[in-house]
Amino acid sequence: MMTGSGGPAPGQSWGATAVRLSYHGVLALDGVSVAVAAGQVTAVVGGDGAGKTSLLGCLAGVLRPDSGEVRRPAKSRIGFLPASSGIYPDLTVAENLAFRAAAYGLRPDVAARRATELTEQAGLAAARDRLAAKLSGGMRQKLGVIAALLHRPELLILDEPSTGVDPVSRSGLWWLIASAAADGAAVILATTYLDDAQRAAEILVLDAGRPLSSGTPDQIVRDMPGSVRAVSSRPPGAAADRAWRRGAGWRVWYPPGIGGADDTGALGIPAKPDLQDAVIAAALARQLPALPQVAALADAPAGQPGLQVPGQQTPERQTPERQTPVRQTPVQGYRTPQRRAGPLVESIAVTCRFGSVTAVRDVSIAVQPGEIVGLLGANGAGKTTLIRMLLGLIPATAGQVRLLGEPPSRATRRRIGYVPQGLGLYDDLTAAENMAFAAAVFGGSSASFPAQDDLPGTVSRAALPVGRLPLGLQRRVAFAQALAHRPDVLILDEPTSGVDPLGRTRLWQTIAAAVEAGAGALVSTHYMEEAQECDRLIIMADGIVVAAGTAQQIVGDAKVAVAEPDDWATAFGLLERAGLPVSLAGRTLRVPGASPDEVRQVLPDGYRVRSEPGTLEERFFELLRPRGQDREPG
After folding, report:
1. What pTM did the predictor assign?
2. Residues 565 and 481 in one domain
């Protein structure tokens, strides 16, 4: 293994080549390569346990790989944000930055000037004297990124900076990330979400420590093996294992050679794949080796377009999880709720005050049987308070809450399936023991709960406490526990955080299957990609509802100016100094709320600027700005 501490040779970059790493005989990275170019953002995508943190640890020099080459600058020229944010909770914002500056050897005057500049730009200036423990999750993550940026590193390494962070804070984080790249840093970050990854210029997708796909977002889509077809419902037969839910419809992947027909015949219509489709197709090619066409893809040598699989899976990698067939978590026999004339869950002009603070003000929402309602909003918008009122955990100061047609009570709560953001599992109990406990609480028999083989991937770890399971498996257990008593209502708070793209679609299939059986679901999420899975959306800000309807209705005819500059870093700086809310998307810049002419006035002649339909996330920020929300750059 070779590691470098000098600058990269002309035309090269920091990164890793054919890195292999194991922990006590368990292989965490198997032949992983990545290049991190200066002035560019590279994203490493995968679910919990994919190997993202291990790879970043090798690049940062905190882990020593068993073999392979790592190219990095001297440690003093690296900025590193661990998944824990690396911030001391009992120090203030200013004290955290002063401590980090001293560790980097910065002169006090230089450190003070740099800290003031970054905290002001990130919207943390007013919190300089606040303890880090008193900051919101998004503010702590921004502070962690600022601390890693103080010394203007050559290589910036960020481990899941946006996981669990609300859209407003995530926008501020991405502004800091883009600013670092525009300043010349090579930036690499880990994420579980593809909407984050699409902002990067290059993407590496990992699965169980092995490369799944790599390249620019367009390259990954272009090199996707096989084809995708759109269908209205989950197909029967062999195609079912290759299908996943997308919004109100479904996608089916066909490996090369099948051509859109198998034992079920031709299905649906050809669909233009996007990044999510391409990554899921690559994951299916890895997980479904029984098909001859798929086995040929899984055995492809390194460099195969769209897959880049480093050879056939070795016995060392043949874990029980990889042998488990991909399938939807079953909900057979799900009890269809008695059809009601009114909604399953309803708030009528509810207000909730905590002393002089009004957390929710005059909010009316409803969840009907057979629909998924998404609840969106920044931290402090009132979402959690509203959910707690709907569950009957806190009383409303004014207004009414109806759960299954009556005020919340122990009897009505027995008919709810609830997955909190913290999952609500007992870490020191096994999955089966957690399920048995839930059965006793809800008054059912453990026989009525799903068998262990209904929880894909958990059989081989049945004896392990839940706290030692990967996050993705923990979420499957939490879902199974919430669904086991066949609830009429599902209330889910960030239900898929930390799960890989394919696993996330499977969990959404579970939600949709329960809803199709007659339940209703209220889902709180920070990610606009997941909002597309909901039938209706409710967006909250400052304790009130600012928009409601389908995603298409909320976006409406919103437009965004898109610039494709040859020198994106210079253009980014010009737009930012002009006060325009610019965001980075690969090598292009998006300026929501501005016309192409406004952007052209800021940029030099010759820059290509066009108008495109806005996204749900961009519309979200437009809705928040008029309400006096702190506008975070990007």
Report:
1. 0.79
2. no
